[in-house]
Amino acid sequence: MAPKGCCASICQCFFEYSTPKILIIRSFKVGTLNRITQALVIAYVIGYVCVLNKGYQDTDAVLSSVTTKVKGIALTNTSDLGLRIWDVADYIIPPQEESSFFVLTNLLITLNQTQSHCPEVPKTGFDCTSDRDCKAGSRDTRGNGVQTGKCVRYSAVDKTCEVLAWCPLELDKEPPNPPMLADAENFTVLIKNSIRYPKFNFNKRNILPYVNKTYLEQCVFNRITDPDCPIFRLKDMVTEANEDFQTMAVHGGVMGVQIRWECDLDMPSSWCVPRYTFRRLDNKDPVNNVAPGYNFRFAKYYKNGNNEETRTLIKGFGIRFDVMVFGQVTVVCDWIVLTCMTKKNIYNEQKYSYVDDFQLLSNETP
Amino acid sequence: MAPKGCCASICQCFFEYSTPKILIIRSFKVGTLNRITQALVIAYVIGYVCVLNKGYQDTDAVLSSVTTKVKGIALTNTSDLGLRIWDVADYIIPPQEESSFFVLTNLLITLNQTQSHCPEVPKTGFDCTSDRDCKAGSRDTRGNGVQTGKCVRYSAVDKTCEVLAWCPLELDKEPPNPPMLADAENFTVLIKNSIRYPKFNFNKRNILPYVNKTYLEQCVFNRITDPDCPIFRLKDMVTEANEDFQTMAVHGGVMGVQIRWECDLDMPSSWCVPRYTFRRLDNKDPVNNVAPGYNFRFAKYYKNGNNEETRTLIKGFGIRFDVMVFGQVTVVCDWIVLTCMTKKNIYNEQKYSYVDDFQLLSNETP
Amino acid sequence: MAPKGCCASICQCFFEYSTPKILIIRSFKVGTLNRITQALVIAYVIGYVCVLNKGYQDTDAVLSSVTTKVKGIALTNTSDLGLRIWDVADYIIPPQEESSFFVLTNLLITLNQTQSHCPEVPKTGFDCTSDRDCKAGSRDTRGNGVQTGKCVRYSAVDKTCEVLAWCPLELDKEPPNPPMLADAENFTVLIKNSIRYPKFNFNKRNILPYVNKTYLEQCVFNRITDPDCPIFRLKDMVTEANEDFQTMAVHGGVMGVQIRWECDLDMPSSWCVPRYTFRRLDNKDPVNNVAPGYNFRFAKYYKNGNNEETRTLIKGFGIRFDVMVFGQVTVVCDWIVLTCMTKKNIYNEQKYSYVDDFQLLSNETP
């Protein structure tokens, strides 16, 4: 083509359209072959991928149930409570949850609270010199009760506003260190996990077939020696997450127990075993350690002789273990691979059929 | 082509097969180039997409932990209880849950129940005129106990079947309006959320680095002034969901607190901040408002002087806040975009290489 | 082509490159048509699929809330407790959970426990003949307390190590059969489920519009007669999972209640109804039935006359019902189908445009 101005050539290039030269073969054999191939592909995509596999549903197809049972005894010795035993009914709160459990490891206890009047805990906003500093009925979210309007003596040095509250008030102090239930590190937990792929009618539990009652009564999980024992020592779990149990126990925290089922359902189901990993979930950033750990308040309610309600308030620090089960992946993955592979073959067939076309063609055109 | 019958032409068209004319280039340069390109694509798809990225696993890769802590005091004044303070240990039931918390806002209380005999609450099926109308041992699911077979006087006008139950029975009445714990609207909740993408070893919490203790002690979430404060006023959350707190508090309900982490991990992690949205989850359809709200019964158990068990039954109405964390999306999205982009480039390369082919071709064919 | 050595021909084949013969059409009409088509496709993919649809986000778009309310009365008659009524506040533990509920069906009760000394339960490791066999301070995870070092008489025949514990200790025995709360099979549960697709601003609850208060008060779910009644009899749920309620009630277990919302949002929303399925989630493998069922311990705490804490320990066996809501699928599916279809059309257009090209071509080349 003759040389032109740049602009012209670009413009020309823009309005240029390149299309493959098409050879039309009028042949019963080839035509049929072509249509059949097309039919095959369509049938495959619609029938197999969409109808049969429903691959996009697999992700919600896995069903899992988790139950946990903690065992262990802790002994505490405090001025308030004296020598006291803590068993599972005392330190698991609430007694049952869907897929997590909380173990009490440390606590601040306030005994014999009753609904009455007492001076607020000294804190900016609650200090006072005379009643004028206190507003009757004011309820500060940082406070422990509703102010009566009186200014009363809290200690030799302090005067604070009087409140209607559960008295005596909880003292705002740091949790004991070492933690009160330091023994908790030796508690063990049996985690029972059953999974099911309804579509494949596949069931499995983390208590493997060969595990018998006697083994289960004395085994403790250990990556090397007992990788299939579903009983875990709390300290081991925390240690695997590169945390120190006693340190974590002081302010509490959240641990993640991951159970992974990566089963190839085409393989013998005995190959399908759970893998356990442990992680600390709540952030304990040394740089910004505002509001660390995990704690909450709960109370035990009593009625004393003259039918008056009293309670024991407990600020409980502890470790919550969230059990998370992963298993869908496998199925989805299976499906993806399967699909791609099969598709690939069919595409190949097509490719070959093209090749055939040329042969047929060459036969037909003398 | 000569004119034919319609049917014939269709048939012909059906058995027609069109294929591009193929030009076979026998050239070391071109061939190599071609194979290399193919190898590149295959290597990319297998190696990068499948092995490295494992995109299909990203969805289960995000780990999140949520802990909540409610603060606030409510004051009630009823004939049953007199002046009474409600603090967190009283109105959070159960004291801890995995990723939700329930705040008691309204209640019907039945004091000093004991296991004894009393007349059923008047209701169709429980009214009677003589013992003949009552069937000993019958336990109606709508009833409160097991019938003794006696027909006793409930009030001046009513006679009902006697039951063995926790007596006195709870009266079947509407919850108080305004709600008893109307003060709950001023309660605040600190929501601590830590997320982690193990694969990317990326950690983040919703208490942002610059948030310090003093700020955290007095801040309250506000879209405009304090968008990063993780402390929320209950009323604000409900209002953002276009609901009226006091109305919702009467019969209770369920609120959803969504925390979205849409982080591009290629960007500085300081850009990765949570977005909070609030929605009412339980339906309050004005047209069909059958069984509205959320309530449940629980009891506090006591033993009186002569070691007899008594309990206080509470029908608690309140708002359950379900905290939901979304974060996987980002990663999956990243992956999708990334993949598409990279693919596109490679496809482009291919496209160019085709172009090259033609140039090479033109050089080769004098 | 002339016959050659095998190796040579393979090598040749390897360096062979086949490309379609390209016909370049220089035509304003055709070029423009071509560019427009390309623009269309690009616009569609970027604009519609990515920006508008955000298909990959749909999976986290569904919001669901579940609340449950159990009704029913059970009567037990034991030597410990005498004739006793159990109502919802007694047998639902904890009183509220996010999306599951536990119904107590069987129990072992230990009354009036106090912190004191008593002989361990006879078990290998706890039997002794003299104090030398007992180690003061030793706390075995299988034990119930901390050993005092004394060896005391447990029964006429047995001597065991004395422990500091909640005494008297719970006897290690099988749960009663038939289960104590056999009546639980007639309990009913109202399951309220609301779903929402925020993106489509679509709300729906499982209490369908036509269901009114009177119907809801007396209906019980039945696949044939009452498929839309959200009130389920516990026994029916267990039976649908091909389990026997009374058998399951003895040791307890975990049931899965699946609610499927498979709604085509293009159809009238009245077609969008939930489907309920019930499955037993925990494995009850007859071959390997180690640690069967589901149970946990909890306690009720009292204070006796002289302000000493006593408790009633209950080892509770029961059935936990986990409610699982599936609904995302539909949306994702919609989106997939939608996308593919639309793409297909556009591709078709392209195909046609190619065909047109040829016609245009034939017009242009006389």
Instruction: Enter the CATH topology name of the domain at 61-112 and 183-329 in chain A.
Output: atp-gated p2x4 ion channel fold
Largest interchain contact: A-C, 60 and 73 residues
- What is the beta-strand fraction of chain A? 25-35%
Structural class of chain A: alpha+beta
Question: Alpha-carbon distance between the termini of chain A?
Answer: 36 Å
Number of strands of chain A: 15
CATH homolog superfamily of the domain at 61-112 and 183-329 in chain A: atp-gated p2x4 ion channel domain
Task: Give a description of the structure.
3 copies of one chain form a homotrimer. Chain A has 366 residues and is an alpha+beta fold. The first copy, chain A, has a domain at 61-112 and 183-329: Sandwich (atp-gated p2x4 ion channel fold). Chain A is 26% helix and 34% strand. Chain A contains 7 helices and 15 strands. Chain A has helices at 6-14, 28-53, 88-91, 213-218, 234-240, 245-251, 328-364; strands at 16-20, 22-26, 63-71, 74-78, 82-86, 100-119, 146-153, 159-167, 188-197, 202-205, 231-233, 253-261, 274-280, 295-303, 309-326. In chain A, strands 6, 7, 8, 12, 13, 14 and 15 form a 7-stranded mixed sheet that branches. In chain A, strands 3, 9, 10 and 11 form a 4-stranded antiparallel sheet that branches. In chain A, strands 4-5 form a two-stranded antiparallel ribbon. In chain A, a hairpin with a 4-residue loop joins strand 9 and strand 10 (202-205). Chain A is elongated and about 110 Å long. Chain A starts with 5 loop residues before the first helix and ends with a helix. The model of chain A is unreliable at 53-60 and 330-366 (pLDDT under 50). Chains in contact: A-B, A-C, B-C. Chains A, B, C: Belongs to the P2X receptor family. Chains A, B, C: It comes from Salmo trutta (Brown trout). Chains A, B, C: Disulfide bonds join 118-167, 128-151, 134-161, 219-229, 263-272. Chains A, B, C: Keywords: ATP-binding, Cell membrane, Disulfide bond, Glycoprotein, Ion channel, Ion transport, Ligand-gated ion channel, Membrane, Nucleotide-binding, Receptor, Transmembrane, Transmembrane helix, Transport. Chains A, B, C: It is a multi-pass membrane protein.
